[in-house]
Amino acid sequence: MDKLYTKRIIFVGGKGGVGKTTVASATALQAAAQGKRTLLVSTDPAHSLADAFARPIGDNTTRVAENLDALEIDPDHEVTAHIERVMASMKRFTRPDMYPEIERQMRLTQQSPGAQEAALLERIAGLIDQTAADYDLLIFDTAPTGHTLRLLTLPEAMAAWTQGMLRQTARSQQLAGVLDHLSPKAGKDISNPMADPAEHETADMDDRTAAITNSLLQRQRLFQRVRRTLTDADQTAMLFVLTPEKLPILETQRAIKALQAEQLPVAGLVINRNLPATADGAFLAQRRQQEVRYRDEINSTFAGLAKLYVPLFATDLEGIEGLRAMAAELRWDQSQR
How far is 178 from 212, CA to CA, in rounded Å? Predict the structure, then answer.
């Protein structure tokens, strides 16, 4: 993990309560101190970045340190904005007498399961695709299995949803063939949600149909570009935080297996809150013995992955100074396999 800051994107994930946000924030501070223009993004609805930095952050980029901006994505705002964009787009491509039906469908969609995830992931895709000129490094404080894996299947879901809406228009039959190509279920031009969308001839289409087709293709290409970035080990790293305990080990094992199945590069593990050798007393001695067993399990279960062990601090880590204390323990060049 000594080359972690040569990446463009770092996802920091892990089970709740293991110190994921603290590690993500300290990592961002460390990168910024090395001159990297860094954007730290929280995609967790229960945001903790503001707590970690002991200052308000919110849904707009906020400067929290030199070379470091932070952002907490508001999922409710993202859903509303996403629905409004889709509704405006659909109204441009349909007759006015269809507007009430579109608005009804949008109200139902806003309350549907997965709407929040779809909106959040579209924002993530936009950040990845559009911020390269402004930032050297993006760090996402999120659970990769919960968000990134959904990102991989979002184009299929959105293509299917769009197809259902477009079938209500007078041009539905003409668009059906185009939309079938956009859906991996067709099994013709693409075999998975992230394959390159086929180029479709729009010369024989009227302006409205061509505009719809181009809009859908642009959307598909966005996620294809993001997919290429996420699976490129030279650009992206998935970093997991866990503690030397049973449940975090099991959850991390499942998460890594799922990510590797999607060819997403896992850079390594941060094993947080290890009792220092100086901790005394019978209770802590017993606890330390248990940690030794779990560290052995971590070393065997995740053999081949880089591992960095971080001690348990005597007090809570608060604000910039607390995060800098954590950053001082993130000695990536001393990680072990």
Answer: 10
List CB contacts of 252: < 8 A, sequence separation 6 or more.
Answer: 14, 15, 240, 242, 269, 302
160-196 per-residue burial string, b: 16 or more CB within 10 A, e: under 16: ebbbebbeebebeebbeebbebbbbeeeebbeebbee
Helix 144-166 to helix 207-230 angle (10° resolution) is 170
**Distance (Å, rounded) from C-alpha 86 to C-alpha 304?**
45
What confidence category does residue 259 fall into, taking pLDDT thresholds of 50, 70 and 90?
A: confident
Its domain, for residue 290, covers 4-75+231-332
Model pTM score: 0.84
| Average pLDDT for 296-312 | 97
Task: Report the domain count for the chain.
Answer: 2
Give the E-state strand segments of 3-136 in sequence order.
9-14, 38-42, 62-65, 68-72
- Residues 211 and 105 grouped into a single domain: yes
User: Do residues 221 and 109 both lie within one domain?
Assistant: yes
Cα distances (angstroms) measured from residue 84 to each of 89, 112, 136: 8, 15, 31
pLDDT of residue 202: 54
pLDDT averaged over the chain? 83
CATH of the domain at 34: 3.40.50.300
Residue 219 lies in a domain: yes
CA nearest to 206, candidates 177, 173, 164, 174: 174
- Computed from CA positions of residues 197, 226, 156, 217, in that sequence, does the dihedral angle turn out positive or negative? negative
Do 81 and 212 fall within a single domain?
A: yes
